[in-house]
Task: inverse folding
């Protein structure tokens, strides 16, 4: 008979925390992660480019919040990204892996641009109504299609939404060449540059896109609505039951296919609205890079925040801040842009790493 | 060589935590014989066989193959000893052909030559009378064809000892005949076979010897020629034990649920329910007995609107003058029509409850539609959760603590508590005490009896015959999706029910 060899305990044992962690302790770990990130980046900066890390950090801060205009752009981009993350929350709460935000944003952007181009004569209020409604509808349709196929034939939503992205990109390319401002320029250019028709105005001052704007208010309202939609409404309840178990949902009398389709329509619609914000509120043009990977960044944010739209605000701000800061140090110190990406990477690594320690307990051999 | 046993298991013990699945089992499989392994659910048959297949390793005892002591620590060891097991759930790759599945995982030298493989597969098929096309894709196959692939797969690997775990559960009678013919051919070729089955007439028709397990113990074995259905049933169910469950007389019985000629077919086209007819009375506990997979789950889910029926009628009669036909309604429509039905499903966390929710949010599974407008009402579910927490003594730190982390008994209290709180006229429970300790089991029995005294029609699907005999008023026995008998629980015996559980109707039993 064979006897089992007695082996030593493994060096590191990782186990999921069974009872979860208090919110204060969890945020403590996250803050420690951020501090460690800054220290490690400082060492890297010093070793590689022999610069004072404090100067670099100050420059990052300057890049994001140095002037009123810069602060505004940071806030504006945060809002667009937050809007997409909020859009993903209902789908993810349903365990429906919508990675098609990219495409849903683009179609929302296309119809917004179309409204700006074709109806510049329309009264401003009406024009905005048409833009908003049509961008919501376009995003909803883009989200609804994979939801419907999943409900009806059980297709894989990850692949489906991903492929819908490519269709949206091709559609955008088509419209860009249709609307290009000069033949063969492959660019739509700034739409209604003189009349500013369809540009989302500042909220408290004259002008466009250089001071506090409506999109902040609107996105914060969306974040609040999504927050309560998921927690306090019957539809939100249906979503979390379907996400946990389709069988339980059927048992409880929830019509699973309807929930899939409805939730994806909502998710897509909010993404489409983000497309409206991107076109009417910031770039005033449309191109295949209008969504620029934000649809994917938003996935990280939604996950990190566990579908809590207020925590999303914190993470979104961090990511946009890093992005702006990295651009700034690249130009200010004439650094290779990879260097700033390294810093961004280090910070994200530690912030994401902190989540691991929030979720898991790590025990070393010999410790109790 | 002829005297050597193909397999000998000496003093095999296997425990799972506190549960002894196999206790000191001594069993012998001779070369060139078909041995039937018989036993109720949970008697330890599959565990015992899994130790031969290398899925479990015995805690104690020794296995001999061809007279040599062996240690089977993995399915690979099992193959090397010439043992092949055909599991209940097939493990095939859908998009591969039969031949590709058969060679999958074999570590042979050289190039994969499909022609040679197909030739070898054909040769095996011819030798034993299998009907198999090596180039057919698995997704195009019927259940019985998939089973054939599984069997050929182990033969291809040179298995001399085959273990079939309930191979006939998914087959039609004609397919079963074919399988038995193949099994006899294999026996003639000197192979040794073990077949796990519940169906006594199959045991009698195919095997040479029958070994019986009961509650993890080896009861004994008899040559099939000397066995009868009655003698085997007696060995299988053993003597009755007394549980002293309080059983008051039925209160004013009146029909609440009438099932007429109900037939259901699963997605593979196999009949799961076949012409089922019975009536559940208000004020009594109706037991449903049967070996696992006799159609109990399909029956309850059909009534609850979760499983489609092909034909028949399901009538709900809240009082003498009204009756509502439930077939074709989904659970939402059933509730909207005011049907006071509660259902404690077999899969507690996968169907009855949401594991990541607390007690309170789980109460809402029944009442979530009652809130104001589009909003949820948290207050009533909170109060209900608190009252269940206190009255049923659920051990949980709070009503918002995920029920997934509670023990099995507490999970069941939450589920049963919620379903009873809905004030049903019809209460269906599936394996309501499975995995629960004695005390919690009695709590559940008492809750069900209370409901009966309130005039509720209680349907109790159970697996423990002793409980069925002491808790229920009448017992419907299912066998292969058919009702093989309805008996009075007060006057029937374990043996009678046990026999009905394994007795098919005449036309099938004659096969």
Result:
């Amino acid at each position: 008979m064979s006897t089992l060899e007695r082996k030593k305990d493994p060096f590191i044992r990782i186990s999921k925390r069974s009872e979860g962690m208090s919110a204060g302790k969890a945020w403590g770990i996250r803050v420690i992660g951020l501090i460690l990130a800054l220290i490690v980046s400082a060492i890297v900066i010093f070793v590689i480019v022999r610069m004072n890390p404090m100067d670099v950090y100050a420059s990052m801060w300057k890049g994001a919040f140095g002037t009123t205009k810069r602060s505004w752009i940071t806030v504006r981009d945060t809002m667009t990204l937050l809007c997409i993350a909020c859009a993903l929350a209902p789908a993810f709460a349903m365990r429906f892996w919508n990675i098609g935000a990219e495409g849903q944003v683009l179609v929302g952007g296309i119809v917004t641009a179309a409204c700006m181009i074709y109806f510049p004569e329309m009264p401003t209020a009406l024009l905005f109504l048409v833009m908003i409604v049509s961008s919501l509808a376009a995003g909803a349709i883009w989200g609804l299609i994979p939801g419907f196929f999943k409900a009806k034939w059980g297709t894989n939503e990850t692949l489906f939404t991903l492929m819908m992205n490519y269709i949206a990109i091709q559609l955008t390319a088509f419209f860009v060449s249709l609307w290009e401002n000069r033949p063969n320029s492959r660019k739509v250019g700034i739409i209604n540059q003189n009349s500013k028709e369809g540009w989302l105005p500042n909220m408290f001052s004259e002008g466009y896109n250089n001071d506090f704007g409506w999109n902040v208010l609107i996105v914060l309202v969306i974040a609040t609505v999504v927050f309560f939609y998921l927690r306090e409404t019957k539809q939100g309840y249906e979503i979390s039951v379907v996400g946990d178990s389709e069988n339980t949902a059927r048992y409880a009398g929830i019509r699973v296919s309807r929930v899939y389709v409805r939730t994806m329509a909502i998710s897509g619609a909010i993404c489409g609205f983000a497309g409206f914000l991107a076109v009417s509120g910031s770039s005033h043009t449309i191109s295949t890079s209008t969504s620029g990977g934000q649809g994917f960044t938003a996935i990280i944010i939604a996950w990190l925040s566990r579908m809590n739209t207020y925590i999303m605000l914190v993470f979104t701000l961090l990511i946009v801040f890093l992005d702006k800061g990295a651009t700034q140090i690249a130009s200010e110190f004439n650094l290779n842009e990879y260097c700033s990406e390294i810093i961004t990477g280090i910070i994200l690594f530690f912030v994401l790493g902190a989540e691991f320690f929030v979720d898991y307990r790590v025990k070393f051999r010999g410790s109790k | 060589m002829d005297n050597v046993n193909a397999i000998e298991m000496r003093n095999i013990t296997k425990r799972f935590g506190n549960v002894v699945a196999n206790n000191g089992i001594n069993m012998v499989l001779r070369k060139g014989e078909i041995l039937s392994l018989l036993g109720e659910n949970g008697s330890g048959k599959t565990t015992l066989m899994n130790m031969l297949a290398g899925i479990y390793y015995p805690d104690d005892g020794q296995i001999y193959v061809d007279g040599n002591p062996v240690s089977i620590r993995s399915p690979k060891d099992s193959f090397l000893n010439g043992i092949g097991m055909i599991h209940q759930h097939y493990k095939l790759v859908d998009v591969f052909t039969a031949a590709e599945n058969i060679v999958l995982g074999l570590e042979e030298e050289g190039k994969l030559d499909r022609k040679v493989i197909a030739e070898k597969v054909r040769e095996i098929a011819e030798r034993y009378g299998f009907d198999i096309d090596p180039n057919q894709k698995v997704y195009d196959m019927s259940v019985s064809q998939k089973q054939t692939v599984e069997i050929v797969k182990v033969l291809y690997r040179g298995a001399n000892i085959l273990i079939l775990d309930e191979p006939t559960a998914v087959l039609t009678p004609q397919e079963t005949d074919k399988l038995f013919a193949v099994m006899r051919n294999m026996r003639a070729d000197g192979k040794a076979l073990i077949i796990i089955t519940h169906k006594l007439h199959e045991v009698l028709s195919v095997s040479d010897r029958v070994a019986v397990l009961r509650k993890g113990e080896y009861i004994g074995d008899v040559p099939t020629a000397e066995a009868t259905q009655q003698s085997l049933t007696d060995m299988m169910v053993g003597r009755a034990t007394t549980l002293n469950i309080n059983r008051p007389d039925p209160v004013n019985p009146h029909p609440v649920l009438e099932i007429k000629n109900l037939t259901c077919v699963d997605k593979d086209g196999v009949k799961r329910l076949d012409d089922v007819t019975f009536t559940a009375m208000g004020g009594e506990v109706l037991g449903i007995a049967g070996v696992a997979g006799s159609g109990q789950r399909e029956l309850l889910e059909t009534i609850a609107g979760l499983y489609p029926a092909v034909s028949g009628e399901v009538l709900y009669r809240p009082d003498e003058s009204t009756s509502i036909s439930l077939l074709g309604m989904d659970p939402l429509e059933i509730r909207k029509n005011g049907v006071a039905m509660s259902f404690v499903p077999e899969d507690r966390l996968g169907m009855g409850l949401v594991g990541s929710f607390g007690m309170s949010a789980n109460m809402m599974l029944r009442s979530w539609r009652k809130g104001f407008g589009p909003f949820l009402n948290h207050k009533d579910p909170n109060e209900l959760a608190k009252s269940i927490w206190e009255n049923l003594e659920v051990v949980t730190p709070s009503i918002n603590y995920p029920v997934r982390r509670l023990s099995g008994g507490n999970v069941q209290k939450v589920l049963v508590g919620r379903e009873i709180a809905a004030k049903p006229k019809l209460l269906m429970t599936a394996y309501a005490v499975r995995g629960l300790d004695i005390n919690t089991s009695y709590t559940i029995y008492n809750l069900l009896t209370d409901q009966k005294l309130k005039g509720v029609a209680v349907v109790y699907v159970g697996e423990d015959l002793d409980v069925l005999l002491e808790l229920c008023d009448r017992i419907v026995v299912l066998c292969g999706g058919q009702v093989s008998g309805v008996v009075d629980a007060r006057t029937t015996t374990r043996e009678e029910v046990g026999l009905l559980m394994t007795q098919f109707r005449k036309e099938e039993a004659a096969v």
Notes: Chain B is about 35% helix and 25% strand. The interface with chain A takes residues 62, 69, 71, 73, 304, 306, 330-332, 334-335, 343, 345, 347, 349-357, 361, 364-366, 368-369, 371, 374-376, 405 of chain B (CB under 8 Å). Residues 34 and 207 of chain B are 5 Å apart (CA to CA).
